[in-house]
């Protein structure tokens, strides 16, 4: 029995939770009695606070992963976390919040209902676009009715659980101009509606300069310390609700990253200029399981965040930010109660100083904004070395305890290891989809119909089928001329078949969804069948008029006939929603018995493959999928997401070929892996691997400040070099000033130990401090291993 529309409003109106601003739960030492704010910060239980928050979308991981992710976030010195909504299994938001509560952390919810977040349709349920006369995110009565109904429901749910809430809309400023005066009215209405729910905590609108009182406008971006014009009223605090830790990626993108040093610089800059809250988007990105990702978005989401897709700490980003938070906490009193002054120290150099009157409470941020040149800054008669693009924090206005460019935390790299037991069986079976003709379809029209309005977000796929007759004299007489099928599509991709023969595929891009496919085909005298499997790769998630986006086949012509070009666009077209294997759910144990499987063949399009695997062990695991083309993978009926290995980046490599298998998806034995391959691949080369971050390194110089934790108020392989080493973690190389004794010194101090302390002085390693080009840098690379490799 299908749920009614009103039930769907409760179950699927996803409040994808993302940001941070002031929803709180009970906190460690007792109940939170109130959250307000002034022009300096958020005020919790009557006290000003510095807050460090990290976005976590709980549906992009599994409940079994939540405790570990939350614990690592707390270790990273977060004071709050962020997320998303449906309410069962992987979508149990109440369970997720209570796990955070147990760790003594604050929670910030973003209600939405629009959340963007590279989530399918921006979090809206697809049925909403079919409400009569609706216009999303505008001063439109039908939309406001559903938005208010949803928001009130979530607020009530949180109140019933003794939880609180505070975030409405998201980056509406990006689309407001499309609605003219309706946009401004909508913003005012949304603010009044939210405040009227009396949650007892502040509400926030991201990037909304005209947020009505008492709603706080905040900044989203990479460098809010320089780009944010500030709150729209002096009594509101300076908040950074999305600090992008990397860049989300789409299929076809090359690798991208944001360094720990640049991220730390941006945060130190923001706090030096009156900021008191930063939220990392994302702190843990996770996985777009199933069909949850928006248009063209990869299955792996924000893998460059401080916690990677597998929930492992990505160093040095995780540790460098933890150390930054510790340094800022040591400066807390001056930042929250001091007076801010700015002191020029020379070209590209300045000091931001906070000093509390009639006390010794003082903090200084010494900044070198030059992107390439290291400099010396003289502050209060003392010289401080400032690397390029860096900020040093002096929590007593004298002692440097942290520099954003000098990383004290260790580095690591991710490695993949073949899970031998899991890959022992290679007995793959296959089931091939049949290609429908126009007479076998259920929806007929005199033109190809728009895809999204037919599939209604129930599937990626829609078959388009038509037929036409040719006489012998219509066909080309010469052997070197072949008819060409030309298809114009509005997106996102399609696979073409003529008389049951696969002729090729085409696709658009994230920037330009529309495309054309032109392929030669063998035609015959008599009836010819054209079948096109059109598809979306996620629904759009942002921009104005979201509800009016379109996709699918637009026009089809046959060229190269003796009679000229044949336009089939006004033919009778049949449409069939989805593919049979998907409808029968042959990707789970029960459904897999509903079709006849045969021995697998390579490189056949529209083919389902299945195999029974042993489980990988207790480590995080993944699926190496480089031999396949495009499709989706299921483990015991759970989709681990779309893959598109055949879509190469400009660098000639797939954007993603490794896919996360959550351990909770696995059983002790008899694990069913099912792959739906659209274009053709080789399943025998699919491999299950375990995932580790067991290559660790440290790189320090004599100019590094002592580790921030040293300051307060009142069985392994080792590669080592001292001198001027080059390369990065995993590929370090000795430089021309390498000290040959370095390895033996480090082995003696560290081998077989979980921690060790090393000197950073040339004489300790027998190095020549005067060697030309020496940077007096110590680099250590270690391969970690357990005594029991199966533990």
TrEMBL record:
Domain of life from the UniProt record: Eukaryota
Keywords: Apoplast, Glycoprotein, Glycosidase, Hydrolase, Secreted, Signal
Pfam families registered for this protein in UniProt: BetaGal_gal-bd, GHD, Glyco_hydro_35, SUEL_Lectin
Chemical reaction(s) catalysed: Hydrolysis of terminal non-reducing beta-D-galactose residues in beta-D-galactosides
GO MF assignments: beta-galactosidase activity; carbohydrate binding
InterPro entries given in the database record: BetaGal_gal-bd, Galactose-bd-like_sf, GH, GHD, Gly_Hdrlase_35_cat, Glycoside_Hdrlase_35, Lectin_gal-bd_dom, Lectin_gal-bd_sf
Keyword field contains Zinc: no
Subcellular location per the Swiss-Prot or TrEMBL entry: Secreted, Extracellular space, Apoplast
Domain SUEL-type lectin residues, every copy: 721-785
Family matches, as Gene3D superfamilies: 2.60.120.740, Galactose-binding domain-like, Glycosidases
Gene Ontology annotations of biological process type: carbohydrate metabolic process
GO terms for cellular component: apoplast
SUPFAM superfamilies the UniProt entry points to: (Trans)glycosidases, Galactose-binding domain-like
Principal localisation: secreted
EC code(s) of this entry: 3.2.1.23
Signal peptide annotation: 1-26
Key word Ribosomal protein present: no
Record family assignment: Belongs to the glycosyl hydrolase 35 family.
Protein name: beta-galactosidase
Biological source species: Spirodela intermedia (Intermediate duckweed)
């Amino acid at each position: 029995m299908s749920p009614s529309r009103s039930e769907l409003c409760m179950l699927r109106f996803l409040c994808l939770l993302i940001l941070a601003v002031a929803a709180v739960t009970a906190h460690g030492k007792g109940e939170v009695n109130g959250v307000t704010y002034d022009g300096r910060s958020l005020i919790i239980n009557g006290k000003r606070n510095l807050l460090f928050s990290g976005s976590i979308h709980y549906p992009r991981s599994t409940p079994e992963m939540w405790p570990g992710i939350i614990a690592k976030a707390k270790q990273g010195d977060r004071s709050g976390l962020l997320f998303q909504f449906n309410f069962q299994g992987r979508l149990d938001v109440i369970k997720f919040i209570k796990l955070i509560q147990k760790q003594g952390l604050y929670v910030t919810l973003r209600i939405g209902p629009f959340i963007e977040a590279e989530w399918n349709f921006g979090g809206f349920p697809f049925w909403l676009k079919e409400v009569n006369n609706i216009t999303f995110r505008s001063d439109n009565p039908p939309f406001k009715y559903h938005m208010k109904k949803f928001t009130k429901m979530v607020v009530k749910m949180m109140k019933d659980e003794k939880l609180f809430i505070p975030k409405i809309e998201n980056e509406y400023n990006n689309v407001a101009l499309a609605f003219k005066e309706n946009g401004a009215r909508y913003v005012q209405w949304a603010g009044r509606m939210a405040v009227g729910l009396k949650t007892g905590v502040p509400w926030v609108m991201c990037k909304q300069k005209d947020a009505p009182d008492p709603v706080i406008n905040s900044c989203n971006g990479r460098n809010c310390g320089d780009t944010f014009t500030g709150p729209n009223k002096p009594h509101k605090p300076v908040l950074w609700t999305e600090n992008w830790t990397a860049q989300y990626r789409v299929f076809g993108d090359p690798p991208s990253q944001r360094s720990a040093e640049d991220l730390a610089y941006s945060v130190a800059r923001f706090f030096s200029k009156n900021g008191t809250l930063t939220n990392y988007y994302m702190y843990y990105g996770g996985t777009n399981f199933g069909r949850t990702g928006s248009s063209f978005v990869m299955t792996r989401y924000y893998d460059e965040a401080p916690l990677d897709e597998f929930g492992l700490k990505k160093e040095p980003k995780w540790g460098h930010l933890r150390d930054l938070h510790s340094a800022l906490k040591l400066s807390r009193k001056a930042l929250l109660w001091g007076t801010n002054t700015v002191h020029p120290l020379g070209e590209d150099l300045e000091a931001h100083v906070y000093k509390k009157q009639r006390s010794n409470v003082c903090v200084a941020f010494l900044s070198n904004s030059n992107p390439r040149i290291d400099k010396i800054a003289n502050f209060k008669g003392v010289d401080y070395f400032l690397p390029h693009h860096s900020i040093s924090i002096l929590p007593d206005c004298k002692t440097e305890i942290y520099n954003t460019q000098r990383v004290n935390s260790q580095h690591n790299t991710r490695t993949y290891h073949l899970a031998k037991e899991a890959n022992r069986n290679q007995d793959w079976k296959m089931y091939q989809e049949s290609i429908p003709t126009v007479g076998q379809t259920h929806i007929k029209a005199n033109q190809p119909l728009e895809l999204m309005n037919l599939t209604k977000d129930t599937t990626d796929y829609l078959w388009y089928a038509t037929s036409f007759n040719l006489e012998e004299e219509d066909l080309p007489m010469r052997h070197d001329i072949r008819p060409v099928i030309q298809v114009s599509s509005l997106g996102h991709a399609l696979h073409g078949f003529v008389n049951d023969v696969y002729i090729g595929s085409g696709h658009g891009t994230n920037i330009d969804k529309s495309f054309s496919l032109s392929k030669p085909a063998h035609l015959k005298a008599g009836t010819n069948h054209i079948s096109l499997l059109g598809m979306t790769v996620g629904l759009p998630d942002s921009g104005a008029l979201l509800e009016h986006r379109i996709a699918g086949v637009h026009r089809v012509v046959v060229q190269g006939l003796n009679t000229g070009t044949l336009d089939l666009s006004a033919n009778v077209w049949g449409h069939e929603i989805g593919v049979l294997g998907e409808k029968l759910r042959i990707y789970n144990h029960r459904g897999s018995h509903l079709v006849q499987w045969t021995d697998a063949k390579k490189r056949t399009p529209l083919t389902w493959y299945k195999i029974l695997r042993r489980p990988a062990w207790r480590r995080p695991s993944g699926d190496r999928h480089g031999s396949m083309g495009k499709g989706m993978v299921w483990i015991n009926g759970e989709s681990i997401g779309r893959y598109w290995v055949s879509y190469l980046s400009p660098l000639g490599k797939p954007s993603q070929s490794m896919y996360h298998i959550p351990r909770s998806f696995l059983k002790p034995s008899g694990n069913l892996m099912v792959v739906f391959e659209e274009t053709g691949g080789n399943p025998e080369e699919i491999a299950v691997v375990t995932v580790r971050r067991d290559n660790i390194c440290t790189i320090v110089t004599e100019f590094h400040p002592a580790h921030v934790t040293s300051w307060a108020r009142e069985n392994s392989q080792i590669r080592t070099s001292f001198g001027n080493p080059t390369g990065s973690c995993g590929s370090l190389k000795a430089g021309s000033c390498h000290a040959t004794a370095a390895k033996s010194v480090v082995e003696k101090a560290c081998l077989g130990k979980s921690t060790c302390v090393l000197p950073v002085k040339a004489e300790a390693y027998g190095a020549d401090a005067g060697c030309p080009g020496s940077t007096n840098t110590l680099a250590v690379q270690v391969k970690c291993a357990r005594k029991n490799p199966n533990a």
